[in-house]
Amino acid sequence: YGTSIETIDNLKRESKEKVESIIKQMAIADKEILEKEKENAVLETDISREEKMKENITKLDNCPVCKQTVGEDHKCKISFASNEQIKIAKKRVEENMEKKFAANEKINILKQTLSSLRIKLNELDMDRIKLSNAEDRKDQIKRITLSQEEGQKEMGILNEKLHKTRAEFEKLKNIEERY
Fold first, then answer.
1. Beta-bridge mates of residue 62
2. Contact at 8 Å (CB) between 127 and 5?
3. Which tens digit of pLDDT belongs to each residue from 28-47?
4. How many CA within 13 A on the CB side of residue 139?
5. What predicted TM-score, i.e. pTM, was given to this entire model?
6. How many CB atoms lie within 10 A of CB 80?
7. Longest CA span, the chain
8. Which end of the chain has fewer CB atoms at under 10 Å, N or C?
9. For residues 80 and 57, is the Cβ–Cβ distance under 8 A?
10. Contact, 50 vs 86, CB < 8 A?
11. Total Cβ atoms within 10 A of residue 89
12. Residues 52 and 136 sit within 8 Å (Cβ to Cβ)
């Protein structure tokens, strides 16, 4: 991913920020799903209550409160109003289901993205270690090379001294023969 430790560190920082962003987005989508499920539970209760009321009204002959006869016109009005409420509630339940499905799809996509980002972070860690090891090796090679160069210089100096000493020794040998 990167050719230097700085590049890798920048990529890691960016990737971590993306991971945090994705986790926040997933939390928001989860919250939306829970809200839609809660709302659907309330709507299902409303539908059930309206169905029951509609059923009970059509069976009534006399009003339980004032004991008057309940007319077909009144039964039709109540039934129509209940049907409208049921229709609206069912439509909202369906809309909520679609939103919930979309949120689940979004979460699945975010999970895949999160997984690939975590893999990228692991690879960046490995690349950073490799680069760090390579730099350490370069430094070792430099130190060894410098040490070898210094050793060769010292050897050269010692060879020169040896040659001078030999030359002086040869001169001294010749002096004894001259005398």
1. 69
2. no
3. 999 999 999 999 999 999 99
4. 6
5. 0.66
6. 11
7. 162
8. C
9. no
10. yes
11. 20
12. no
